[in-house]
Amino acid sequence: MRSFSFLVLLLVLSAPVCAIEPTDLGQGLIYLRINSLAKSAQDLRSALLRPNALVLDLRYTADEPAAADGLRELNSQPAKPNLYVLVSPATPAAVAAILTTTATPLVTLGVKDSVPVAQVIIAQTPEADRSAYDALETGTALASLIAGKIEKERFDEATLVHEFKNGNHDAHPPEADPAKPGASPAVLTDRVLQRAVHLHRALLALKR
Fold this sequence. Notes:
With 208 residues, this protein is an alpha/beta fold. The chain contains eight helices and six strands. It has one domain (17-207): 2-enoyl-CoA Hydratase, Chain A, domain 1. 37% of the residues lie in helices and 15% in strands. β1 and β2 form a beta hairpin. The chain is globular, with a radius of gyration of 18 Å.
């Protein structure tokens, strides 16, 4: 009996997560990661109905027959003040098709070769992007993943918005050279999510 109970517990703990609980990133911004649009339609609907700005993470959502149907919820809800959608090379084509045709205003962010082509391209490899993504589900704190320091921190606020408005969607701060004396060791950082947070804060600053 104990063996059976342990087996059930193991299956529950190892089952794929459909969605990370909506997380408050501060300054009116909510983060929602969806691994299965088919199973998380209610989570998406609830997030879209809230008045907060939203980061919707669809980078590695499952390629399911009903995925596109779940995402069509974007078209049936009031426009949000700001909607940032994170994508990757692994984002399903059906999901990408909805993102490129929806009338809902949104900004897509992702690494090079993301699907659809991201409006804001982040200088991070797909492998590093996936590692940072997976780290959240294996216990790394979200705050830690987006708190990584980079050179010219102000670049990620007013300068980023300035470059974006001028058509430079590939703008990014200079990468630190790990070979230089005194260089900080590499820190696992979710650059795509971090950029969405910085962009949101920059837009708030410009409105003020």
